[in-house]
Amino acid sequence: MLTCTLYEANDLPQREIAYWRDLAAATPDFASPLLSPDFVRTVAQVRDDVHVCVYRRNGHTIGFLPHHRRPGRFARPVGAPFSDYSAVITAHEPGFTIEQALQLAGIDRMHVSGIVDPYGVFGQEVMRSATPDDAYALDLRGDAPGNNVVKKLAKNISRLRRQLTEAVGEPHFIIGDDNPHHFEAMLELKRTQVRHNGMHDFLAAPWVQRLMRNLFEAPKDGLHGCLVTLVAGDVPLMYQFGPRIGENAHPWVSSFDPAFGAYSPGQIFLNDCRMPLKDAGINWYDLSTGQQHYKPAFCNHHSVVHNAMVFSSSPAGRFKQGFLKAGRRLQRAIRPVDHLLNRIDRRMDVIASLELDTVARLRGFTHAVVTSPKRKGSSDA
User: Fold this and answer.
1) What pLDDT does 42 receive?
2) What is the mean pLDDT of the chain?
3) C-alpha closest to that of 98 among 311, 363, 358
4) Which of 61, 160, 263, 281 has the most crowded Cβ, counting Cβ within 10 A?
5) CATH code at 236?
6) 26 lies in a domain?
């Protein structure tokens, strides 16, 4: 008999946390910091809606579904919209589906991003209707191939590096930078860029600010925020920041000082960071999705992940699924605005996941409408 016990994240028993870690150690697909129990508990420090469903068969634990439990029997992955990956953490042959898992959890629908599904919990029907997206990473293990930088681009980067060295100083990296001034500069540069491009300030929400600082200040022997800083001489040029656990790091925020834009610090960063990261014990640097115009050249690992709305097998879940399908059929029927509506849906979803009160959401939605012309030609952060 399959059962589900719902825990607040901080109440999850230690024996369950230990088993979760065992499952992640046995399945490389679950090794991301974002899929760890440590990340769930870290987000629970700044939000009170973080829960974990523990699934058991005949009293034996077989799986975990961490999530934000939102009003209206709706759920999101923990840390959304920073949750680039979603999963039900299980062993081989779990013997249940996502529809059953949601019904037992009392969830009618859940938005999942970057589905990680090595054991088929989500099933073929969900994957066929899901939206694919390209994800990239730097695989720094000993037998992994190098990047895909072509000769012409490599020559141009070498020229820019020489010019930077002559004008400012020789570039080098600080991996695990613990300088608080660099951390604050990283955040402010990104927020300035976001405001300039007319996008929603995804670092402004109070819970996000606390999460970033808690990660930055966390001990480095567990889950913590890893700040990677590219420096020329003693001048910081560019930063990347996100959670790290063990050999796996997942940068969320990437920002650079526009005063040095002529040297293309982003290209120098991605071209030169491999050995410094590896020397610091990072064997997997996950750049995930987004910003597709530059990642293919510098990354040596590519995968396709999927985003979807999944529904429970309850009558209410089936009704909401049917309603959504009808809306999408109507949307496709008016093709001239189909793409625009999809973009609006994605942006509204990001705002709704960041802003937890009605006033802040309305403010965000209004800002999105007003700044829409400004965002044309700008890529998302």
Assistant:
1) 98
2) 89
3) 311
4) 263
5) 3.40.630.30
6) yes
Angle, vertex CA 352, rays to CA 349 and CA 353, nearest 5: 85
More confident of the two residues 14 and 356: 14
Handedness of CA 5, 11, 15, 17 (dihedral sign): positive
Does residue 379 register a pLDDT over 50? no
On whether both 169 and 280 belong to a single domain, the answer is yes
φ/ψ of 56, rounded to 5, equals -130, 145
Co-location of 195 and 280 in the same domain:
yes
Q: Hey, what are 25's tokens? A: 């150690």
Residue with tokens 């030169």: 272
Bridge partners for 76 per DSSP: 68
Question: Does residue 62 form part of some domain?
Answer: yes
The domain total for the chain is 2
Please give the residue range of the domain that contains residue 123.
2-132+305-333
Give alpha helix (H) positions in 89-205.
98-105, 123-129, 151-167, 180-196
Counted residue by residue, the chain has a size of 381
What CATH code is carried by the domain that includes residue 37? 3.40.630
Q: Going by C-beta distance under 8 Å and a sequence separation of 6 or more, which residues neighbour residue 256?
A: 189, 237, 238, 239, 265, 266, 269
- Cα 175 to Cα 92, 95, 166, 229, 278: the distances in Å are 36, 42, 23, 7, 10
The 10 Å CB-count burial string (b at 16+, else e) for 52-67 is bbbbeeeeebbbbbbb
Q: Which amino acid type is present at position 230?
A: L
